[in-house]
Structures are given as structure tokens and as C-alpha cells.
Amino acid sequence: MSDILNELNKSANLALNSKSTEESMKHLAKAFALFSKETTRLENVNVRLLNRFNKINYQLEKVESAMRNKISDLNAAELYLNNILKNISQGILYIDLTGVVTTYSENAQNILEIDEKIVLFNKYLDNFRDDFFGFSIKNALKFSMFPKTSYITIKTKNLKKIIKITTSLVSASSKTHRGIILLLKDVTDLQKLQIQANRNDRLNQIGQITTSIAHEIKNPLSSIRGFASLLYKDLENSKPLQDLVTYILDATKALERVTNNVLAYTREVVLDIESIDVSSMIKDIVKSIKIDESFPENVQINLSLVPSSYFIPADKDLLRSAIFNLIINAYQAMNDGGYLSISILKNISSISINISDTGEGIEKNDLDNIFTPFFTTKQRGNGLGLPQAYKIISAHLGTLDVRSILNKGTTFTITLPHERK
Fold this sequence. Notes:
The protein has 4 domains: 71 residues; 99 residues, PAS domain (Beta-Lactamase), CATH 3.30.450.20; 75 residues; 144 residues, Heat Shock Protein 90 (2-Layer Sandwich), CATH 3.30.565.10. Helices cover 52% and strands 20% of the residues. The protein is built from 11 helices and 12 strands. Strands 2-1-5-4-3 form a 5-stranded antiparallel sheet. The longest helix is centred in the N-terminal third of the chain and has 67 residues. It is rod-shaped. The chain starts with a helix and ends with a strand. 18% of the residues are buried.
């Protein structure tokens, strides 16, 4: 208790115990004076405290406002950086010095097809081999030993991918933020384009050579056929000799047919574009194939097509010829019967026509050559059917791909754009 309160209490007790009214009033007056003095002091203290509180509160509000602005700026920066990471075509993987993956962009997830929840903020080695990306991550973190560029081939759920990895070291910062950055780029499509470009170059070279050879053959062939025809007439009275000349005529006809096919293949494809109902076209092709006597009874055709009235820009006759050729190849590959499946899948900017069989499949070494003119594994084939189909599809700004497994079957996929640009 303070001195003033002690004196106030003492004065109050004296007033209560006073023997006279005057003495009591005197002590009460002193007590009220002391009370008034203490009240004034407390009021002054309260004012000072209130002013101090207001000052501190004002300072806290300024700090809070600055913090809010800082947090807002950080959120904006984070959103900006996340948008950059999201829109960069390459995948980004950042591994700190402790081996923890602290950045795993959406594109990296799409390329590797491993969920972010599994990888992000977990140890790298919990989900990947040390040399998964073509070099030791341990050595890279410990000794800064890594190649700037490396390539790997991975098998995902959907397909086999070729990945280009560009690696760099982050060192000009605090130790807690040091590590290595991996930039991942899926170059599978680039590889396919390179293969396709090489194939087209090869086909162009072969086309030029075969055109020249075909023209060189055609002229003497006509002479041989003409003289053989004259000889056939002159030997009218000698049937055995005339039969021998017949072999010559038949051979010249066969050779002429091959020459014409070669010249037809080497000609530039000129398209008459119109809107084609592709489902109706395939139904008509299948109907004509089924009534053909050469179509085997032990082959069953399954169709999975888009609704009719779905149109694409194409040359009806040429596209029909290419699809027809692929379907014939499919059922001819099934000597013991099987299933021939034809399906259409609508994509964002294209459609895919899949023609699958359950036949003997194609040897891996032959897959790169099946679109090369005159390459064939058939005894009676001329090796121009698939190259011609490939040429027609390419002229439609589309692609023709093949997947095959020995003794299980083959799938040809035609991809055609919705629009010609």
C-alpha cells in the first residue's frame, strides 16, 4: 500500500475515533484532500498510459500494415514465379544440399508421370535411383560433378520417352538454398520428327532414282512387247513356239505393271479437298471388303467409330485408297484368323484412326523400313502399298505411325488434322 493510502487510512480512522465533531471534521477534510490528490495523480498516470498505449498501438498498426504489404508482395512474387514455372515448357526439379526435392514443377510431373505429393519435399533417393537422370546425384551435390547435358529414355504408363536433362549448380546464395537444378525436356516428338524427316529425305532420293529407272525401262520394254507381239503372229502355225512367246508377253505385262506402279508412286500427290464423313467412308470400305471373295471367314472386324456427320477435310479417293490398303495389310497378316479392329478417336485438333490386327506382328528390325519403297516381307508384295499410304497421309498434313509386337499384332495409327492451315 502507498504512503498516501496509508495516510488516507490513518486520517479516516482518526475521524471515526475523534471525541469531537470539530476534530472529526478536521481529519475527514485531510482525508478528502489526500483522496483528491491521489485521484489527480492516478488520472495523470492514466492519461500518460493512454497516450503511451495510443503511440504503441499506432506503431503496431504501421508495422502490421507494412507486414501485410510485405506478405502481399511475397504472395504476388510467389504467384508470378509459379506462373513462370507452370508455363515454362521444360520441367524443373530442384534438389537442395540435403538431397530433398524442394521444387517440382507441373511440367516435370507431366514428363515423369510421378505425382507431386510423392516427390515434393521428400528425399530424392526415396523415389529415384541415384543415377536415374544419367549421373550420380550424390556426387553432384557433394563434389559438384555432373554433365551439363545428358539424355535418358524412360518407360511411363503410356509410352517410352526420350528426356533431355540440363543441369546447373546453385551456389551464389546461403548454404540452406544451395543445390542443383535439373531442367527436363521431352524430346520424344523431336526425335520422331527427325526420323520422319530422314525417312522423307530417303523416300525423295529413292523416288528420283526409281523414276529415272522406270523411264529407262519403259521404252525398251515397249519395244520388246511390240516385237514379241509380231513374233506371236508370225508363229501362228507353230503352237509350241507361240506358247513360248506368250511367256515373254506375260512377263512384259507384269514388268510394265510394276513400272506403272513405280511411276504412279513417284508422282506428286495432288489433292482434291472436300469435307469427308470419315466414319461413313470406313463403313463403306469394310462393307466392300467383306463381300470380297479373298476376305478370310475366320477374321472378325470390330468397329468403334465416331457418330456419322463428323467431317474432316480430305481427298476422298486418295484417303480411301490409303485406309483400304492398311486394312488389307491387317487381315492378310492373320493367316490363322483373328480380330481386325478399327477405331476413331477425336482429339483437340485432330482425329486418330487406329487399324489393329491380332496377327504375327512385324520384326523390330523391319519397323524402320516398312514405309520404304520395294521393302516387303510378303512373297507376292511389291513393297509400294505402305509407302504410297504414307505419302498420301503426309500430303493430308497427317502422320502414319506403327506399333507392333511379335505374335500379338500390329496397330497402324493415322492422325489427320481437323482443319488445313
